[in-house]
Each structure stands twice: as structure tokens, then as C-alpha cells.
Amino acid sequence: MTPQRLHAEPLEPMSAANVMAYLQGALKDATPSALHRTHRYGQSDRAWLERIADLLGALGHRSWIYREGRDRNYRIVETSAKFLSISFDPSSLIGTPAGLFYVRGYFDADGGMPASSEARLYVQFCQKDRVSLERVHEILHEQGIESGRIHNPSARVDPDYWRFFVRAKSHQDFLERVSSWHPRKQAQISARVKI
After folding, report:
1. Between the CA of residue 55 and those of 16, 82, 149, what are the distances in Å?
2. Which of 47, 52, 114, 153 is the most buried (most CB within 10 A)?
3. Are 176 and 104 in contact (CB under 8 A)?
4. What pLDDT, on the 0 to 100 scale, is given for residue 194?
5. Half-sphere exposure of 86 (CA within 13 A, CB side)
6. How far is CA 127 from the centre of its chain?
7. Domains of the chain in sequence order
């Protein structure tokens, strides 16, 4: 399976299981609707939402994109894909190729790096769900990508906010092997990858 709008793919092989793992990882920044039995990925970046819709379509699932609110630059891609679950436990992905796809989705939803290629590089993951963050940490560790400890940067401001950084010596490995399907992050990574 190769969704048409996905370009160079550093993780092989591309399979339904890997795409499902990616979408499950990206779900960390989505919200479920119990009333409609759907999941909603939201962002101001429509291009990433279109990419999610393409991935869902490649798996045979319907999705639809719409603007949320008349005066907001915020869009939603909503899907009723039954395999998605906010209680998904990625433990079974540790040590598998699908694990890196899960991390890629998680990074696209809740990861960060500097926007400017001139800034000192860092790769971070932030999340209120510490358990899922620990699983991402474990997946990276099993793949030989080293990370710092999970910590709360400011317990006084938000005691339930957790973060970790990929270690500098693993940056290139992360950028090449995990990479991104988020158009903005993909461009930032392309500017950083050493040839």
C-alpha cells in the first residue's frame, strides 16, 4: 500500500498495519465523540489533515474535513474508522517496524522541533498521558534511539504535563528513521537531514 501523496518513505515495508499504527499514534492529539462514534483530528494545517484523510482512504475508511467555527482558522478531519481507540496500548508495537510508525504519528501530533533550521536542534515529545509517553520512550529505546528521562518541566504550572527529549547523538537516527508525514515537520526534517 502506498498512499499517493506520501513521498519518500524511510520506513519499510509500507503496510496496513504500519499505517494503522501511525494513525493510532496521531490520535493522541485527537478527540473522540461518543455521541457520533467518531474520532476528530484537528489543526490549522489543512495539509496534514488531508494526509490523514488519504491514509484513512487507503485503508478503506471514510473521513470528512470541515472548518470548526466560522471565524477560526481551524479544521477537523473526522472519521468513523472502527480500529481507532483512545485507549489503544502500543506495548505490542515495541520492537516492531510498526512501533516507529506509531512514534511518527505521535510526533506529528504531539512532538516538536525548532521551526528554523538555523536554531539549535532538539526533538521533544509532550503529553499529559504519561503512560503513552512512556511507551513512545520504550519504542525508541528498543530501536536504539536514545532519549532523556520523562519529566515535568513545571509541576507548579501543570502537574500533569510530561516531556522528554531525544538525545543529541540520536537526532540524525530519529530524523532519518522516524521522520514525519506532517508537511510542515517533513520540510523541517528535510532541511536538517545530513546527506
Report:
1. 9, 14, 32
2. 52
3. no
4. 67
5. 13
6. 12
7. 16-79 (3.10.28.10), 90-192 (3.10.28.10)
Grid coordinates representing 79 are 472519521
For residue 11, the 8-state DSSP code is S
Q: What angle do CA 187, 192, 195 make, to 5 degrees?
A: 110
Summarize pLDDT for 12-41 with one digit per residue, the tens.
457 999 999 999 999 988 999 889 999 999
Length of the chain: 195
Give the DSSP per-residue string, 52-71. HHHHHHHTT--EEEEESSTT
**The three cell numbers locating residue 65:** 474535513
How do 111-112 and 63-67 pair as beta strands?
Answer: unpaired
For residue 165, count CB atoms less than 10 angstroms from its CB and return exposed for 0-12, middle for 13-18, buried for 19 or more: middle
Could you report the per-residue pLDDT of 50-72, keeping only the tens digit for each? Answer: 999 999 999 999 999 999 888 88
Residue with cell 489533515: 49
> Do 5 and 47 touch, CB atoms closer than 8 A?
no
Helices (DSSP H) in 10-146: which residue ranges? Answer: 16-26, 46-58, 97-110, 130-142
